[in-house]
Specification:
The complex is a heterodimer of chains A (115) and B (112).
Chain A: E1 5-7, E2 10-13, E3 19-24, E4 31-37, E5 44-50, E6 53-57, E7 64-68, E8 74-78, E9 87-94, E10 105-106, E11 110-114
Parallel strand pairs in A: 2-11
Antiparallel strand pairs in A: 1-3, 3-8, 4-5, 4-9, 5-6, 7-8, 9-10, 9-11
Chain B: E1 3-5, E2 10-14, E3 19-21, E4 24-26, E5 32-38, E6 45-49, E7 60-61, E8 72-74, E9 83-90, E10 100-102, E11 106-111
Classes of the chains: A mainly beta (115), B mainly beta (112).
């Protein structure tokens, strides 16, 4: 089991551009959450997808959007990139909407640099 | 608003010394608390959860609702414990809000 896989691992964009990050959850998991981790900070919740719908959203602008596919994989899209969007983007998967065990399985992240 | 505070950004101890990583939270309901750990060049992973009352790798953590704390402790630190530790809060059992609120993390270094 490869666990949670994310791509790309690193990418560099310029202000105003758009970016798409991808995530495949751990085998057997059906819920995908995305977190943003700025340098020196803990992960901050962006949103959660379950049954191909956004179920919860953190305090992030509409420039951040996502999608979940029938195979449970997910994408995170960020439009009109700002310098402040530079961060490590973590995908986490779990089983069930309520994350009953409380355990999230994280990917290694996609490091986005906005110049 | 829910918040998790880890007051120490960095913590250094010598091998064999006791270690305590502090975590305080603010939440008016009944929380679930977790410790996640990230070893060098590895992904973030769950270390332990308060509802399990378990000891993992010699670490324990007790939820103190009166002090709203969930400090992580180990009586004898080992070099392999060096890592970044994150305290995380989930909003109560049965809640549909299956998200975690993380603290900023504490980098633990255990010197030989």
């Amino acid at each position: 089991d490869a666990g949670v896989t994310q791509s790309p691992t690193h990418l560099i964009k310029t202000r105003g551009q758009q970016v798409t990050l991808r995530c495949s959850p751990k085998s057997g998991h059906d819920t995908v959450s995305w977190y943003q981790q700025a340098l020196g900070q803990g992960p901050q919740f962006i949103f959660q997808y379950y049954e191909e719908e956004e179920r919860q959203r953190g305090n992030f602008p509409d420039r951040f959007s996502g999608h979940q596919f029938p195979n449970y994989s997910s994408e995170l899209n960020v439009n009109a990139l700002l310098l402040g969007d530079s961060a490590l983007y973590l995908c986490a998967s779990s089983l069930g909407l309520n994350m009953n065990t409380g355990e999230l399985f994280f990917g290694e992240g996609s490091r986005l640099t906005v110049l | 608003a829910q918040r998790v505070t880890q007051p120490e950004k960095l913590l250094s101890v010598f091998k064999g010394a006791p270690v305590e990583l502090k975590c305080n939270y603010s939440y008016s309901g009944s929380p679930e608390l977790f410790w996640y750990v990230q070893y060098s060049r590895q992904r973030l992973q769950l270390l332990l959860r308060h509802i399990s009352r378990e000891s993992i790798k010699g670490f324990t953590a007790d939820l103190n609702k009166g002090e709203t704390s969930f400090h992580l402790k180990k009586p004898f630190a080992q070099e392999e414990d060096s890592a970044m530790y994150y305290c995380a809060l989930k909003l109560g059992r049965g809640s549909t809000l299956g998200r975690l609120y993380f603290g900023r993390g504490t980098q633990l270094t255990v010197w030989p």
